[in-house]
Write a structure and sequence with these properties.
With 266 residues, the protein is an all-beta fold. The chain folds into 2 domains: 97 residues, no CATH class; 127 residues, Sandwich (Immunoglobulin-like), CATH 2.60.40. Helices cover 0% and strands 42% of the residues. It contains no helices and 17 strands. The strands form 5 sheets. A 5-stranded antiparallel sheet has the order 10-9-12-15-14, with no helix packed on it. The chain has a 4-stranded mixed sheet with strand order 11-17-16-13, with no helix packed on it. Strands 1-2-6 form a 3-stranded antiparallel sheet, with no helix packed on it. Strand 7 and strand 8 form a beta hairpin.
């Protein structure tokens, strides 16, 4: 008679869960996919995963934060918030990019991780219109409700000046088409904006990272800067199909919009 091993003799298949680390961990770049632009060019969309639960890292553009082939600076972040962030920025490549690759490399705490952006058909995303519902990304504007609009991962940009330690008002106008996913029909629609630091070695303090959007579409916050220099702030506008807000934008790769504000702090 064959005797089966008891619990003591059986192979232990249990694996301990990874231990969360507050500091000292690496940052992985991530390639989210690509989509075609109306002018025939192509956008490669990137994000990152900061494995730390508390440590926000600053990695300047250069050997430890670069794209290849050059130029090394393709508009990527240099300030890395904690945990996973998707769809932060897009790099435009020509229509004939073909089988080329554009690789983003990050080195943090001695660990180097690289990810290639490419046009593999399996990585095509619908960032400008959700195929199942027809939903489109929110529209962002700086400078007023009649100003030039921005929509999608490429988004829109603005600039302003500020003084060290002086709260600086930052205003954005956001509107959305109100199209909702079928699975969320039983609950109120979702739509909002959230701010974060994208570049700048100093500390940026927002009075409200997720300000309310009023009836005119205006959302107001203030930012205070600890040191002089150049900063870039990012605002994420998300809607019903991207309700993961600050940590995960895009849900099913639509629909969210990026806005970037370059701030010269005196």
């Amino acid at each position: 008679m064959l005797s089966l091993p008891g619990p003591a003799g059986a192979q232990n298949s249990q694996v301990d869960a990874p231990i969360p680390h507050a500091v000292g961990q690496s940052v992985s770049p991530s390639f989210e996919g690509w989509y075609s632009n109306p002018d025939g060019t192509i956008s490669l969309v990137f994000g990152y995963f900061n494995r730390n639960y508390e440590e926000q890292l600053d990695i300047p553009v250069g050997p430890d934060n670069r794209f290849e082939p050059g130029p090394a600076d393709r508009g990527q972040p240099t300030h890395f918030l904690v945990r996973r962030h998707t769809g932060l920025f897009a790099v435009v490549v020509p229509a004939d990019f073909g089988e080329q690759q554009l690789t983003w490399t990050l080195t943090a705490h001695g660990e180097t991780i690289a990810i290639p952006g490419h046009l593999n058909p399996g990585w095509e995303i619908t960032a400008l219109k959700e195929t199942t519902s027809g939903n489109t990304p929110p529209v962002l504007r700086f400078g007023g409700p009649a100003a030039e609009p921005g929509q999608g991962p490429l988004g829109i940009r603005s600039a302003l000046t500020a003084a060290v330690s002086a709260p600086t008002p930052i205003i954005v106008w956001a509107t959305d088409d109100g199209v909702r996913k079928a699975r969320s029909a039983a609950r109120p629609g979702q739509f909002g904006v959230v701010w974060g630091t994208y570049r700048g070695a100093g500390t940026v303090t927002f009075d409200d990272t997720a300000p309310a959007i009023d009836e005119s579409g205006k959302a107001v916050t203030t930012a205070t800067f600890s040191e002089p220099g150049e900063y870039v702030l990012r605002v994420l506008a998300w809607d019903d199909s991207g309700g993961q807000r600050a940590v995960m934008a895009g849900g099913f790769f639509c629909c969210w919009t990026n806005g970037f504000v370059t701030v010269q702090v005196r």
